[in-house]
C-alpha cells in the first residue's frame, strides 16, 4: 500500500511540475520533440516511435551517455534509467573487473543483450560472491562508448520475440553509422573525497581515470560507410578500508601476537581495482548493385585488471613468515580478452524483406595471482601463479524475413515477420600451473585468495539450440494496434520450449494511449551454471573459508542433493499509460513477472557432515539448483518535457522512477535426495534476502539539461532506495538507508569544433550507510561498506573533458 501511495504521489508531482513548465513556456517557440524517435527493439514493424510502441522502450542517445563523468556504459545507464542498477562490488574475485547489472531487480542474466539487433555473447566469468551471484552476464563495458549511436532498452518480457534470457527485458546497442566526420574526446577525473570511518578519517584523492576515445567515418563505395571507434581507459584503484588496530589482532596470552610488527595500518584495500583496457569497434554497410546491403561489425577489447583479496596477517596459518613477515594482501590480476565479429546481407526480394546473418563472439579470462604464496610449498613457494583460464564462445546464425500483407478491414498492412535461429555455445575451464593448486594435508592448498583450477576442474562443454518464430503486427484501425508472437526452441542439453506474446495499444485521444502485453518467457541454464567448478575464499560468519563450487553432476553435489538444472520459465504482465502533448511525454507502466524454477547458487554449506565429503583444505561447498519461484511486480514512471525559449536557450526536464518488489516462493530449503543426515539447508535467509531486498525497491531520477549557443549544462539528482543486508545471525542485519547522488556538468564551445566540460558526479560526497557490525565483539567484519550499496562507495568524482570533432 505504501508503494502504491508513493507511486501515485510521484506521478502527481511529476505531472504537476512538468505541466507547470509547459504552461510557463507556452509562448515560447515550438518545443523540441522527444516522442518521434524511431525504434527497432520490441517491434519488427518499420517506423514505430517511442510513444507508438506497444511496450515501454527507453532510448538513450550518445549525447546522454557522454554527459556523465564515467566512461563505462553500464554506469552511465544506471544514472539514465530508473529500472537499471549497477552496483560496484569489491573483494569479489573476477567480479571486481567484470561487473554485472540488473534490470527491474532481476538477475543480470535475465536481460537479453543485443548489438545491432544481434545477440551478444556473455562473459566467461561466473559471478559467485556478490550482486548477481550465480549469473554469467554480458559485459557491456567491452563496447566503447564512442561506438554507440543509441541504446534502446525494452522493459518487457520478449522471449517469444528474441529467445532465451529476455525475461526482464532487452537492451539493444545500436552502433554509430557514419561515412564521414569524426571526433576525439579526452576525459580525466579522480575521486576527491573525505572519508569518515569508524577508526580514522582522511581526505583522499584516488581512482584517477584517463580515457581517450575517438571515432571516424569513412566512405565505402558511393553509398556505403565504415565507422571505426577506439577507446583507451586507465583507471586507478580506490580504497575505502579502515585501519587495522591492535584490538583487531589475534591475542596470545592476552597480548597482541608479537609476529604482527605494526598496528594502526591500512592493510586492506576495499574499493575499485585497477583497470586498463583498450577497445576497438567497427561498423560497416555497403549497398550492392541489386539493392541489397552487405553489413558487418566487429569488436575487440584487451583488459588488464588488478583487484584485491582478504588480507593475511603475519600470524595467519596460511602465511609463510619468512616470505611475508608483516603479512600480505594477495592480488588477483585477470586478463580479459573479448572479441566479436558478425555480418550479413539484407534486402528486399519481391516484397519479402530478408536478413541473413552470422555472429561469433569469444570471451576469455586468464587469472594471474600475485603478491601471494602457496602455504603447502613452504619457504620455496613462488609469489606469483598462473591460476588458469575461463573461456566462452558463441556462434549465432539468423535468417529473418518480413512481409507486409494487405488485408481488407485493417488500417495498415499486416506485418508478418518470421525466421529461424541456430546457436552454438562452448564453455571451457583450463587448469593453472601445478604450483597454483598443489596442496598437502593439514596446510592450505594452492595460491592464496584464488587457488588455481586443477586438471579435474577442466571443462570443455558445448550445446546447440534451434529456434523458429512468427511475429504479427498491425493497426486494426486508427486507434488500435495489436501484435502477437510465438517462438519454439530446442536445446541439445535440456529439450524444447514454446513461448508466446500478445500486445496491444489503444489510442484514446491524440494525446493519450493505453498499452499492455502478456507473454511467457524462459531462460536456459547457462553452461557455466551446469559445469563450473573451482575453489575460492569466502567469508562465512566472519571466518575466511575456502569454499568449493561443484558442478551439478559431480559426486559431491549429487551427495548434497543436486539435480540436473531445468530452464527458468516466466509469465510477464504489463499495462501502461502514455500521455503526450507537444514536447511533454509521460509514461506509466505497471508490470508483474512470475518466474518458476529460478536457478540460484546454494548456501555456502559448511556443516560437519558436508565438510567430511570435501577435499582437504576445503571448508564449504555450494552448487546450483532450481531453488525457488519468484514474483516481481512494480511500476516504471518516466516523464520528459523539452522546450525552447527565445533568450534562455533550450531545456529538457526529466523525472523518472522505478518501484519494484520481489518475493520468493516455493523455496527449496532442503533436498530429500541428499544422502546426508541431517540434510543441509540449501537455501536460507541470506540468499533469500539477496533476491528480495538486495537491490533498491525504488529509485528516482530528476534531471535538467540546458543548451544556449556555445554553452551547455546539466544537473541530475538520483535517489536510491533502501537495501537490506542480511546476515546468518539476524541480530547482525542492517539497512542501507536511502541515498541521494547529485551530478552536475557545465560545458563551453570555445572553438568551432572544440568543446570543454567540467563536472562532478556525487557532488555532495555522499556515502552509503556503514556496516554497524564493523567491529562487533562477535567477530570483526572487515567491510565497512556493503557490496550491495547501489551507488557504490567511492565518494565524489571530479572530472574534465575536451572534445574535438570534424
Shape: globular
Percentage of residues in helical conformation: under 10%
**Major sheet characteristics:** 22 strands, antiparallel, barrel
**Average of pLDDT:** 89
Topology, number of strands: 36
> How many structurally independent domains?
1
User: Could you name the ranges where pLDDT drops below 50 across 5 or more consecutive residues?
Assistant: 1-33
Give the C-alpha Rg: 27 Å
Q: What is the CATH superfamily?
A: TonB-dependent receptor, beta-barrel domain
CATH A-level architecture = Beta Barrel
Helix/strand structural class:
mainly beta
Please tally the helical runs, counting DSSP H or I stretches of 4 or more residues: 8
Strand content: over 45%
Could you give the distance between the termini?
A: 54 Å
What is the CATH class? Answer: Mainly Beta
CATH topology: Maltoporin, Chain A
Write up what this structure looks like.
The structure is a single chain. With 806 residues, the chain is mainly beta. It has one domain: TonB-dependent receptor, beta-barrel domain (Maltoporin, Chain A), CATH 2.40.170.20. The chain has a 22-stranded antiparallel barrel. It is found in: Cell outer membrane. It is a multi-pass membrane protein. Residues 52-170 form the TonB-dependent receptor plug domain. One of its GO terms (cellular component) is cell outer membrane.
Amino acid at each position: 500500500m505504501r508503494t502504491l501511495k508513493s507511486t501515485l504521489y510521484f506521478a502527481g508531482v511529476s505531472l504537476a511540475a512538468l505541466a507547470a513548465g509547459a504552461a510557463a513556456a507556452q509562448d515560447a517557440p515550438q518545443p523540441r520533440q522527444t516522442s518521434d524517435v524511431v525504434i527497432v527493439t520490441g517491434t519488427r514493424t518499420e517506423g514505430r516511435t517511442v510513444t507508438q510502441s506497444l511496450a515501454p522502450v527507453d532510448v538513450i542517445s550518445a549525447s546522454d551517455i557522454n554527459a556523465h563523468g564515467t566512461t563505462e556504459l553500464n554506469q552511465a545507464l544506471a544514472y539514465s534509467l530508473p529500472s537499471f542498477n549497477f552496483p560496484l562490488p569489491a573483494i569479489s574475485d573476477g567480479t571486481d573487473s567484470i561487473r554485472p547489472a540488473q534490470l527491474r531487480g532481476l538477475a543480470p542474466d535475465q536481460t537479453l543483450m543485443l548489438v545491432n539487433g544481434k545477440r551478444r555473447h556473455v562473459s566467461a566469468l561466473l559471478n559467485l560472491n556478490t550482486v548477481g551471484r550465480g549469473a554469467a552476464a554480458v559485459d557491456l563495458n567491452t563496447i566503447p562508448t564512442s561506438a554507440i549511436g543509441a541504446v534502446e532498452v525494452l522493459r518487457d518480457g520478449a522471449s517469444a520475440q528474441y529467445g532465451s534470457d529476455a525475461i526482464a527485458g532487452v537492451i539493444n546497442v545500436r552502433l554509430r553509422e557514419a561515412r564521414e566526420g569524426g571526433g576525439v574526446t579526452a576525459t580525466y577525473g579522480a575521486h576527491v573525497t573525505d572519508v569518515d570511518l569508524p577508526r580514522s578519517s582522511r581526505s583522499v584523492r584516488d581512482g584517477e581515470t584517463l580515457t581517450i576515445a575517438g571515432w571516424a567515418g569513412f566512405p565505402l563505395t558511393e553509398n556505403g560507410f565504415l565507422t571505426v571507434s577506439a577507446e583507451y581507459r586507465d583507471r586507478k584503484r580506490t580504497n575505502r578500508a579502515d585501519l587495522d588496530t591492535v584490538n583487531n589482532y589475534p591475542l596470545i596470552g592476552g597480548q597482541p601476537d608479537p609476529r604482527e610488527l605494526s598496528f594502526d595500518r591500512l592493510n586492506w584495500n576495499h574499493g575499485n581495482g585497477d583497470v586498463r583496457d583498450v577497445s576497438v569497434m567497427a561498423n560497416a554497410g555497403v549497398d550492392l548493385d541489386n539493392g541489397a546491403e552487405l553489413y558487418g561489425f566487429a569488436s575487440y577489447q584487451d583488459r588488464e585488471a588488478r583487484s584485491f583479496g582478504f588480507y593475511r596477517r603475519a600470524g595467519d596459518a596460511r602465511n609463510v613468515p619468512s616470505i611475508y613477515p608483516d603479512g600480505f594482501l594477495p592480488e588477483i590480476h585477470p586478463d580479459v580478452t573479448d572479441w566479436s565479429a558478425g555480418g550479413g546481407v539484407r534486402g528486399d526480394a519481391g516484397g519479402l524483406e530478408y536478413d541473413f546473418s552470422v555472429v561469433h563472439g569469444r570471451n576469455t579470462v586468464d587469472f594471474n595471482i600475485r603478491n601471494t604464496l602457496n602455504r603447502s610449498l613452504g619457504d620455496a613457494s613462488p609469489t606469483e601463479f598462473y591460476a588458469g583460464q575461463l573461456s566462452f564462445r558463441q556462434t549465432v546464425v539468423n535468417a529473418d524475413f518480413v512481409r507486409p500483407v494487405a488485408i481488407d478491414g485493417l488500417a495498415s498492412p499486416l506485418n508478418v515477420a518470421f525466421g529461424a535461429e541456430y546457436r552454438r555455445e562452448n564453455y571451457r575451464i583450463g587448469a593453472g600451473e601445478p604450483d597454483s593448486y598443489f596442496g598437502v594435508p593439514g596446510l592450505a592448498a594452492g595460491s592464496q585468495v584464488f587457488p588455481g583450477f586443477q586438471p579435474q576442474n577442466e571443462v570443455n562443454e558445448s550445446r546447440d539450440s534451434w529456434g523458429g518464430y512468427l511475429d504479427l503486427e498491425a493497426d486494426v484501425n486508427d486507434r488500435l494496434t495489436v501484435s502477437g508472437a510465438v517462438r519454439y526452441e530446442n536445446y541439445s542439453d535440456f529439450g524444447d520450449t514454446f513461448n508466446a506474446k500478445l500486445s496491444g495499444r489503444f489510442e484514446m485521444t491524440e494525446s493519450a494511449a493505453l498499452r499492455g502485453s502478456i507473454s511467457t518467457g524462459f531462460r536456459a541454464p547457462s553452461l557455466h551454471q551446469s559445469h563450473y567448478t573451482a575453489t575460492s575464499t569466502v567469508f562465512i560468519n566472519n571466518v575466511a573459508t575456502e569454499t568449493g563450487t561443484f558442478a551439478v553432476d559431480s559426486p559431491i553435489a549429487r551427495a548434497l542433493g543436486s539435480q540436473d538444472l531445468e530452464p527458468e520459465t516466466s509469465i510477464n504482465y504489463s499495462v501502461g499509460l502514455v500521455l503526450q502533448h507537444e514536447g511533454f511525454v509521460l509514461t506509466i507502466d505497471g508490470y508483474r513477472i512470475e518466474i518458476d524454477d529460478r536457478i540460484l547458487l546454494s548456501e555456502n554449506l559448511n556443516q560437519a557432515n558436508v565438510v567430511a565429503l570435501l577435499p582437504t583444505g576445503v571448508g564449504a561447498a555450494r552448487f546450483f539448483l532450481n531453488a525457488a519461484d519468484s514474483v516481481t511486480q512494480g511500476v516504471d514512471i518516466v516523464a520528459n518535457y523539452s522546450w525552447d525559449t527565445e533568450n534562455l536557450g533550450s531545456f529538457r526536464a526529466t523525472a523518472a522512477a522505478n518501484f519494484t518488489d520481489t518475493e520468493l516462493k516455493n523455496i527449496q530449503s532442503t533436498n530429500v535426495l541428499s544422502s546426508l543426515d541431517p540434510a543441509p539447508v540449501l537455501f536460507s535467509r541470506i540468499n533469500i534476502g539477496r533476491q528480495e531486498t538486495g537491490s533498491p525497491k525504488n529509485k528516482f531520477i530528476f534531471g535538467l539539461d540546458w543548451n544556449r549557443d556555445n554553452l551547455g549544462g546539466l544537473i541530475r539528482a538520483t535517489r536510491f532506495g533502501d537495501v537490506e543486508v542480511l546476515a546468518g545471525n539476524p541480530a547482525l542485519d542492517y539497512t542501507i538507508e536511502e541515498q541521494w547522488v547529485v551530478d552536475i556538468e557545465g560545458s563551453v564551445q570555445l572553438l568551432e569544433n572544440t568543446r570543454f566540460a567540467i563536472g562532478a558526479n556525487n557532488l555532495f560526497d555522499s556515502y552509503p550507510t556503514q556496516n554497524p557490525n564493523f567491529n562487533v565483539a562477535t567477530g570483526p567484519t572487515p567491510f565497512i561498506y556493503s557490496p550491495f550499496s547501489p551507488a557504490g562507495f567511492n565518494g565524489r568524482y571530479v572530472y574534465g573533458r575536451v572534445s574535438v570533432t570534424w
